[in-house]
Amino acid sequence: MKAEPPQSTGNTAAQTRVIEAAVALFGEHGIGGTSLQMIADSIGVTKAAVYHQYKAKDAIILAVAEAVMAGLEEGVTAAEGERSRARARDVLIAHMIDLAVERREWAGVLQRDPIMLRCLQEHARFRDVMKRVNRTLIGGAPDPRTRVLAATLAATIAGAVIHPLVADLDDATLRAELWRHIRKMLPSR
Amino acid sequence: MKAEPPQSTGNTAAQTRVIEAAVALFGEHGIGGTSLQMIADSIGVTKAAVYHQYKAKDAIILAVAEAVMAGLEEGVTAAEGERSRARARDVLIAHMIDLAVERREWAGVLQRDPIMLRCLQEHARFRDVMKRVNRTLIGGAPDPRTRVLAATLAATIAGAVIHPLVADLDDATLRAELWRHIRKMLPSR
DNA sequence: GTCTATAAATCGATAGAC
DNA sequence: GTCTATCGATTTATAGAC
């Protein structure tokens, strides 16, 4: 267990610089509107240096997806360890809120950009995580009402944190208020 | 008052074909990831024919924004005519839900794509509509709690309708269930 | 790990015929 | 309203020196 700089992914410092710059640009111009030239300029290197870290643009997109999905998988794994389905759902929601609030721009890119959504659907590993998330959010019977609730919860968490109206709020306030509003939608309380 | 084919915008048939194809492709690949070549191929014409309808890609984006924002402005105008702020908010939410449910892919593109978001912020006309929407949603004092609620409402409506979990639901069911969950978040009920 | 240089493809956009 | 043909800029991606 060495001290790993930022996240605990097996990335070099140069790779971390690339994906951090990529996420910022993806959020600002969209993935399709972000060129490798823009990423290279943002870091202060040339395109060729970026290609040395990731052999294609798709690999960068994949690395971004990997970084955020790791946090989500961690949350759903913790949730699945709970005793009741209601507790599991609450634990997952808490994890999702923490994740979304702490990395607001990241959450935006991941759940919003069509190219990222396609990336998440194309890789079985990501699809599996999303399936577990949805199953935990739904809890029991997948009737229309519960499915709309699950979709509403996911959309709320991912979408509210990047709304201009809350851009100036600090993490603690946003997290607390988000919890307050979401809790009112949950049954049996 | 002549009988206008689809929407009541002053568009020719060829222009309508272009923006309908554009919206579909924008939703699938993102705006930045959609080329005029793709739009032209989708309609079955050449790029030059598309350029004859809209002199630039920005003009197409603008036309898409115009089409959806027209519906939103209609809703907020109707809401502002209500007597109480609470009623105004409810009327606006109802309009937003109708709009989002009926044109699900449209809602996705409009509120999700970074390029579209920038387009909405750059044009004073759109910024003004969004300001009226936010003011109506907030109702009174813009304290953090109310602002998070407004952000949550907007994010929920726009995001839930395009979630995969509800893709197979018909409009009436989705609308009703969405109302049910959102109503629980509203105060004084 | 970063650079220069360049290939091959595609992009947005325009000109002019029909 | 649509076409062919093309320009110039930009894109992804590669080769090879340091």
Describe the fold and architecture.
2 copies of one chain form a homodimer. Chain A is mainly alpha-helical and 189 residues long. In chain A, 72% of the residues lie in helices and 0% in strands. Chain A contains 10 helices and no strands. Chain A has helices at residues 13-29, 36-43, 47-53, 57-80, 85-102, 104-112, 114-122, 124-138, 144-160, 171-183. In chain A, helix 1 packs across helix 4 (57-80). The termini of chain A are far apart. Mean pLDDT of chain A is 91; it is low at 1-8. Chains A and B meet through helix 1, helix 7, helix 9 and helix 10 of A and helix 1, helix 9 and helix 10 of B. The first copy, chain A, binds a DNA duplex (18 and 18 nucleotides) through residues 12, 14, 35-37, 45-49, 51-53, 55-57.
Q: How far apart are the termini of chain A?
A: 42 Å
Greatest chain-chain interface?
A-B, 44 and 43 residues
Q: Please state the average pLDDT score of chain A.
A: 91
Q: Which structural class do the helices and strands of chain A define?
A: mainly alpha
Helix content of chain A: over 70%
Q: Major sheet of chain A, described briefly?
A: none
Strand content of chain A: under 5%
Q: Oligomerization state of this entry? A: homodimer
Overall, the morphology of chain A is: globular
Unreliable sequence segments of chain A: 1-8
**Helix and strand pattern of chain A:** HHHHHHHHHH
Task: Count helical runs of chain A.
Answer: 10
- Rg over alpha carbons of chain A: 18 Å
Number of strands of chain A: 0
